[in-house]
From TrEMBL:
GO terms for molecular function: kinase activity. It comes from Flagellimonas lutaonensis. It comes from the Bacteria. InterPro entries: 2TM_dom. Keywords: Kinase, Membrane, Transferase, Transmembrane, Transmembrane helix. The chain crosses the membrane at residues 21-41, 53-74. Residues 10-88 form the 2TM domain. This is Histidine kinase. The keyword Cell cycle does not apply.
Amino acid sequence: METINEYKYKKAKEQVECIKGFYTHLMVYVIVISVLAYFNYATTSFPWVLFPALGWGLGLTAHGLRAFGYMPFLGKDWEERKIKEFMERDE
């Protein structure tokens, strides 16, 4: 059985990995959308680049909210309550 410190370390490490993943996602987003914007500018006057930028941007926003701990619906409080509920039920 793991101790409280091991559990806290594991959760902190997961949080750091999630934040690192967000920054990687952000860099890829900026690079790809920039390339698409260039192609859009070079080929047509219709701003089609807005569609992937907005769609992917919504996913990136959700990733950022999760990485930095802001979940308005199923946040940390809900998660902790459910964990305690299941632990008590299984005793």
